[in-house]
Batch of 2 targets.
Target 1
Amino acid sequence: MNAHAQMAANFLANRERSDWHDQTLWMVRQKRDRVALSVPEWEQLREQASKIKDNVLSNLENYLLQFEQHALANGVKVHWAVDADELNRIVLKIINDSKAVRVVKSKSMLTEECGLNPFLEKLGIEVVDTDLGERIIQFRNEPPSHIVLPAIHLKKEEIGELFHEKLNTEKGASDPHYLTAAARAHLREKFLSADLAITGVNFAVAETGAVVVCTNEGNADMGVHAAPVQVHCMGIEKIIPSTADLGVFTRLLARNATGQHITTYTSHYLKPKEGGEMHVVITDNGRSERLGNVKYRDSLKCIRCGACMNTCPVYRRSGGYSYRYVIPGPIGSILAPYADIKKYKDLPFASSLCGSCTDVCPVKIDIHQQIYYLRQEITGRSKFPGFKKISLKLAAKIFAAGRWYDLSGKTARWAMKHLSRKIIYHPLNAWGRGRELPEVPERSFKEWYKKNIKS
Amino acid sequence: MHSLKIGLFIPCYIDQFYPGVGIATLELLQKLKLNVSYPLKQTCCGQPLANTGAEKEAIPVYRNFIRNFSRFDYVVSPSGSCVYHVREHYDILEQTDEVKKVRKNTFELCEFITDILKIDDLKIHYPHKVGVHQSCHGLRGLKLGKSSEIIAERYSKVHKLLEKAGGIELIKLHREDECCGFGGTFSVFEPDVSVRMGLARVEDHQLNGAEIITATDMSCLMHMEGIIRRQKKNIKVVHIAEILNSNSL
């Protein structure tokens, strides 16, 4: 079995936990359906959002330069990072230049992608993730398993145990309010003593130079307001033309992500506070290469709502870690191969191609079609094991000619009828792991047709 | 309508394992007084290869399909998935008039009846509790109905045909259109996820009182039937063509 299939099998081995994971995420999907239904023009919004992103991707350079010009005029320091390494070094330099010791960071998938935390930690700089879910997995030294719900693979009892160990909460306590209050007290201390705050960016508005960050916990604001230096890390695709466009996305984002009408905080950062510094790091890290590929460029429209994960019947039943990439689920399956096509060659096959991701996507990325295209590329380029290659070639021969097909069908049916159960349900028969093969009929449809209709 | 030449496409796995579904489709089309024939050199739409990432290898299979079916006014098949493949993924062939004609005129059985023949009452009598499994490629690919993700007015061509059946009780599901996990070769590349997905679908139907699960795709039903038989569950699968053919036309 490939890596995803194997990890998924391990995940499913715990029936109770995997059912819970499936049901919890399905509940989020249902919440999303209910609030989306309250917006009669929902489908028009999706269309509009998709078109705004089309415009952005077609004029990315102009919008980025416009953004830079306005941000500079607002007194913001703008940095350009070509890749992960450069982003990390830029952030390090800002930290060093400002003599910051204590760093807090709110949610940012980009810094996850670039490995900023481990990079800084290696140099002895402590970065405290301030999003509750992120803090939980940081305590556990784990990556996020979902982009919006990073600790969705954990149950409250496990968090109770973790907090008992890390935050000295009562042993055995798992009441979410109690645990949240403990995390809040712990994080408040971190916010108040922070020298520098890092955030991600949901949207960067070209016409004003503002960056917009959406959170439910207000942790981005707590960090930015308390620390003298603020650093916002964004991918080049986060740009939108105007504040008017922003409304389209904020109406879609929280509804599609968690079933809220809007995130609790939608924070607009325009310029540095008095006596403070504001930095924006604009990062490419492979995005412009993707932009140049017509088939896959739409993946850059993603606003990271995570709805494709919640809706995906495979993700819900295999868990985020089975994808082994910073962004899991359907969108991860089309992004990961761009990072490393060899390492992630199994991900485009971890899909039943049901298309639910495409229908739920707020910016109408044709995710399942891109998965299909990636399969063609991966199978086409890989020197896969002889057996698979030979069987594909053989299948192609059989299906291309009627008589070969008829003969093979007849042989297969004969074998299924006459071979012993032990041979047919050999462990190599993956179908037979949890399913019976169909019962073999007396004759095929074609044989019946020849006998009863043709003659 | 009588003068229309209809080519019957029976997908490979239906041909080999479920001839009854092919027979029901043929009989139903004949009852509807259509001039139907079944080209004997047909094999498969090529989807199993293409979904495994070998669409280039599938080209001779696509060509065989076009050769067999280009002479018909319509091609009708009891499979939404295969029809979707022909319409959507035969784009890699050179788009000759023949290819364009076949892609445009290949229809899944239910949509052919509702959209081309414009019939919604087949005078069926089917006194059973039936759960409809909405096969993904039919639902989201061919848009035989509105998927639950899309925020728009509900419709379903399959339900439209079944609702008119005498004595039928269509049960409601907790998850009205979740994938069963068959997914072609996905079913063997990811057997554990595939089986768990199928089991969840079967249990949803059972829990809501269905005696019979029906679908536009026998592949989904073959997968769920495999699970039902392995786990000795008391529920049956019946392809939509067999229900639609249980009429007195």
Target 2
Amino acid sequence: MTDDDARLAAFFAASEPPARDLAFSAEVMEAIARARFQWETARLGLFSLVGGLVLWAVWPSLAPALAQIGGGLAPAGAALVATAAVLLLADGRAMPILGLRS
Amino acid sequence: MNPAALDATLIRAAQGGSEEAFARLVDRHQQALRGFLRRACGNWALADDLAQEALLTAWSRIDRLDEDANVRAWFCGIGYNKCLTELRSGRRARRREADYQSSDQRSPGVAPEDRLALEQAMAALPLEQRAVVALCLAAEFSHADAADALGLPLGTVKSHVTRGRARLMEALGARDDGR
């Protein structure tokens, strides 16, 4: 290696970043997490918008049908909710949440 | 496990959605990518911004990468495109200038005159040639890997290496002559 080669190598070596840079890697992963969150939020927003538009479009024909079957399903719905509540309480997982058991 | 096999394993895992695997790829190759961008754009803060953007793009395109691909070259290729776009657009130019002015602090192992002469010579090279020099002379990429990373024909890379090296040596020689 000539002297000029060594000087050139030293010049390049001076701009070499550290082999490990946890701060930089963490910043990159944070940026990725942010981008993923923004993407998920935008996706869910779009789904909600499309769902709302579809519901708005079909509501005139859906409303009478729902009103018709709603009356008949109400007792069954109430029974289902009551059963679910009993099962949760019996399982014990809901007790601490409700403050009934620590 | 050899580095290429480890990269292949990490690529597979990252393609399956593992952010941890991608984080390890970042950790393994950030030095090469940032070093390349520092030399290609001549500005460290801008280079780190571009490296981060390049890695974000890489994450979004990881499913397009072959398992046996050269990750380092792939990252540098994406970084080069970011650099091209950035330097052409001229955004953040003011900050870039400020960074050049503060660059005296950061080359402890190099004679200030050498640093100045080589920085000027690097800045005077066309961007494409500078990128080739940064990969082949500074980061020891093979000509084929550099051609692959930058999307250039192999012959162009070889000629850029020869001419770029000559220009840098000329800068050092001219400085010596002026002593």
